[in-house]
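agent: user wants the full assembly modeled, not chains individually. Plan: 1) parse entity lines 2) check alphabet per entity 3) run joint structure prediction 4) return tokens. Steps 1-2 passed, two entities, 614 residues total. Proceeding.
--- entities ---
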Amino acid sequence: MNRQSLTRRSDFEWVIEASGCMRVPGIIYAGEKLIDEMDEKVCEQLTNVASLPGICRAAYAMPDAHWGYGFPIGGVAAFDPDEGGVISAGGVGFDISCGVRTLHTGLIADQVESRKGEIADSLFKNVPAGVGSRGAIHLNEQEMDEMLLGGGRWAVARGYGRPEDLEYIEEGGCALGAKPEFVSHEAKKRQADEMGTLGSGNHYLEVQRVAEIFDTATAAAFGLRLNDIVVSIHCGSRGLGHQVGTDYLKAMVIEGHRPIPDRELACAPIRSQLGQNYLGAMRAATNCALANRQIITHLVRGAFAEVEPGAKLSLLYDVSHNTCKIERHAINGTTRELFVHRKGATRSLGAGHMDLPLSLRGAGQPVLIGGTMGTESYVLVGTGESEELAFSSACHGAGRSMSRTAASKKWQGRKLIDELREEGVLIRTRSYRGVAEEAPGAYKDVNAVARAAEEAKLARRVVRLVPLICVKG
Amino acid sequence: MRIMAGWEHFSHGSDIGVRGFGHTIEEAFEQTALALTGVVADISRIGQREKIEVHCEAPDLELLLMSWLNAIIYEMAVRTMLFGEFHVVVSGCSLMGTLLGEEVDPERHHVAVEAKGATLTALKVVHNQDGQWVAQCVVDV
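--- prediction returned ---
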């Protein structure tokens, strides 16, 4: 990105001053190197988002921001319905409520190292992943609607998981205000056999080791010690969420708010029939994602029970990073109810926030940052400053630095799997080409992204995780 | 001179662009569908055992392309099939499409990634001065 179009406010904060149609400035949080590597499109898309009606304070981009769909991926924007604010299907994304969940195993590295192959095989056998995979659960129409209303709570009531899991999921595992009646027949049909499936692309199921501790006190509050083994699940709302995104993107471009600076920013006033229908459908899709991660958690527990029955597999936390949530934030000294879009961005609540479970309230929210199958992931903690900086938001992952086409030309899946095995990472997949497209070298440096989030005070690093096993779709 | 039909992928930050071109809009749409399949699997390995018909309508040709690709993505998902041959008839802003394919076999078809949806990003349907039709957009995967 060309720095000349930006005003530098600090080492990690860059401003696109409001001009032309922009109602608020654009703010990017990143270090010099990440700014230089960032796609010029982020600047263009942030400028467009800043021109939408009802936007508050600023349009924000996180350190891992890249070219998205109208909104940049790694974008955050809050809209006030009292000021004509809008909701955008592109601002939430196709994979509604895609997110990361991390589980404590209660095991340490030495207990797992010699059993890695067995654990990998058991996870791969028990958790359906990849193109065309189907889950063991088939939902009829009534069950589908119940799932869309109940999310994680529905899953636990059906026996997929433990009641205590729900406390460690945003909104207690259930998005309120879901309206299954505004989810199309096609979306429900697409989901009928996809419950408890991981998907493909950048989605994964990993067994990881705590390799470094940055903040001992917070790590202890999160129950994390050096060499602890955790399991992380990255996936979303599967076919239902994708179809809801598809249906409403088309509806918003045909019937939505006018004028807009770019057709990709298709949106609808929050206080319109279309806006309300989308909100109801989006929350239903959010519940689908939460139920899906809950079922996968149940499958992971089953997989460990076959080979390592002592594993605890309790939740550290579950965060969604493609969302629009109603939240209360201070705007010019007044607390307002805003619709906060986070596309490829994670909520980052600081210590003391009332939305956190009691056991985490003293420390702050775990911010789960996914890396790649060969590098690192991070657990960060939300900061108090993040509220003022970006409506309590932080980054969500590394972000790609190379296209899928280029990656599949540069790497061979089979060879990559062999190389990673030499480095101690076991990959299980049905798609060598998928592995090549997801090569660690095709992603930005997640260490730099996590460091930039910390230095910008969006979140603080707690531990670094390295992968031991990765199941890819 | 006869304009050749063909398809290609183009780069996008996190996902992938699909582009088809041809002598007619139908050819361009058929080729873009092949480019979409090429994102998911190896087209040359897909047999044409089953025929599926789809119908799409939209207010303009660009949204018609998006609807066409999304109809294919939907059929791939609900039928767990891959399609390696497409036939299209465009009439105004509506389309009748035929998809020929078979049930997905991840190993035989060399699958790579699922397509989530066709997007408005880089969405274009253009009739060039030299008579060539080009149809393209980015697909979220």
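agent: reporting back. Chain A touches chain B through 48 residues (CB under 8 Å). Chain A has one domain: 3-401+443-472.
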